[in-house]
Specification:
2 domains
Length: 497
């Protein structure tokens, strides 16, 4: 994402360095080396690769690109200038990410997120259990911005409920992941939702708005499929969520008034308020509501004996900036009611910065221009460009085994190709999400596939077919491209055509 109020130059003024001496094979050397190193790194570290080693591998990829540049007489100064420009272009995205972390913290301690979960769980019904799983996980994942947290908390509970009803674990897991990745894709609190527009040179809320065109039909078809499946399978027993609901109600002061805060943020977004302003207002309102609705929680965060101005200030600031956990008498909820605040976003920010180093050096040596030219020569039509993007995201999810890198590498490589075709950045960011974010969970050795199958206790092969939303999304984005539906063009007024 790029907030032009923070970066006056704007994406339209960025350039890709030309280097006629560089061949396509030389341009691809850093990409091939990066993918190979990332694949090996994930093999060695598994899920822990996201803790920092992947970031360093991106820097190593940049070093390989620099070596190629030196052999083609590109100066170190030129490469560093492009790195600096790349990092500057993401300044808005980095600030947005920090504010998203702050907002998630105050929305937890204020009871906004717990209230969403509380009301969401009450729609469970054995007859439409699978469709309800999709809805519940969608609500929770949108509220938290995390498919991993949704799967590890409510997802585990729903797997248990499904078992008691005699429903296949593969079906239940597929429904859970369909809903979880809907939220992971659409929530402004999600790191992938922030990362995709950052790579494409777009803006967060425009990206979310544009994703609705392909996402709403996909989630609708997914719900219809699960309703049909639910009406044609036999269930036994009842869905008992009373223990979870009681624990939430005992810990938080659940109230419909808390929804005034997210409503206010949504209204500001619809009124086209700057994203940072909308998120700041949401954060501050969350903090104020926390003091009035959850005074005991705010007090407990600081270890104080009573709520004073000092303890209230400290409690809200802790929620905004660092990890905050709300203790309950239900182990299932312990991870769900944990927020890492602004500090929790530093890993994603680190990833973006390292990706910008790789992308900047690739740009500085002329590799991106050479790759873009080759892609454009192959992708003669808009559809073929979209198809190339989808194929690249899928290939990186398989080879690099990491969801984030399936957004970062194609996003940086294809950005210029989309601009050259006169396509707005929302087209690229939407395609990255439709094909990179949601398909990661369908690959057993991908960090997402390994994580979710382990947490839910269901092999990828068992839930693959039932994760309808995840495998349908790439086809939906290609269908829109083939039929030229909502393909936004770059014009002087930046309007859709």
């Amino acid at each position: 994402m790029q907030d032009n109020s923070l970066n006056p130059s704007g994406p339209e003024n960025e350039h890709i360095v030309q280097n006629k001496q560089l061949s396509i094979w030389e341009a691809l050397i850093p990409v091939i080396a990066l993918v190979a190193m990332l694949a090996f790194n994930v093999f060695v570290f598994g899920d822990d690769a996201l803790s920092g080693s992947n970031q360093f591998v991106l820097l190593l990829g940049g070093a390989v690109a620099a070596i190629v540049g030196f052999f083609n007489k590109v100066s170190y100064k030129q490469m560093m200038e492009e790195v600096a420009e790349n990092i500057k272009s993401t300044s808005g995205a980095l600030l947005i990410l920090l504010m998203v972390g702050a907002l998630s913290g105050t929305w937890l301690v204020s009871g906004i997120i717990p209230s969403m979960i509380y009301y969401g769980l009450q729609i469970l019904n054995p007859t439409i259990f699978l469709a309800a799983c999709v809805v519940i996980c969608s609500v929770i994942s949108v509220a938290t911005g995390s498919s991993w947290t949704t799967s590890a908390t409510v997802g585990i509970a729903l797997i248990g409920i499904g078992n008691t009803l005699g429903i296949s674990m593969g079906m239940t897991a597929g429904a859970i992941l369909s809903g979880a990745y809907f939220g992971d894709k659409m929530s402004p609190l999600s790191d992938t939702t922030n990362l995709a527009p950052a790579m494409a040179g777009g803006e967060l809320f425009e990206h979310i708005k544009y994703m609705f065109y392909t996402t709403l039909p996909t989630i609708t078809i997914t719900l219809i499929v699960f309703v049909i499946i639910g009406l044609n399978i036999e269930t036994s027993g009842t869905a008992d969520t009373e223990a979870i609901l009681t624990s939430i109600d005992k810990t938080f002061n659940i109230s419909g008034w808390l929804f005034l805060v997210p409503i206010a943020v949504v209204v500001m977004i619809l009124k086209k308020a700057p994203p940072l302003l909308a998120l700041l207002v949401g954060t501050l309102l969350g903090g104020i509501f926390a003091i009035f609705f959850q005074p005991e929680i705010v007090t407990n965060i600081t270890g104080a004996t009573s709520l004073t101005f000092e303890s209230a200030y400290k409690g809200i600031m802790n929620a905004i900036t660092v990890k905050t956990s709300i203790a309950t008498d239900n182990e299932t909820l312990s991870d769900l009611f944990t927020s890492k605040g602004m500090a929790g976003m530093l890993g994603t920010i680190w990833l973006i910065l390292c990706a910008m180093v790789f992308g900047g050096i690739m740009d500085g040596i002329g590799a991106l221009a050479r790759i873009s030219q080759s892609l454009l020569s192959i992708a003669e039509s808009t559809f073929s460009l979209f198809a190339s993007t989808v194929a690249s995201c899928l290939a990186l999810n398989v080879t690099a085994s990491d969801q984030y890198l399936a957004l970062v590498v194609p996003g940086k490589m294809f950005a210029q190709a989309y601009r050259d075709k006169g396509l707005a950045p929302e087209n690229l960011s939407r395609t990255l999400e439709d094909s990179g974010t949601v398909t990661s969970v369908l690959i057993p050795w991908n960090t997402c596939g390994a994580y979710h199958s382990s947490v839910l206790g269901v092999p990828v092969a068992q839930y693959f077919f039932y994760a309808v939303f995840n495998w349908l999304s790439p086809f939906m984005t290609l269908l829109f491209a083939a039929l030229q539906i909502k393909i936004k063009q770059i014009t002087s007024e930046n309007t859709s055509q």
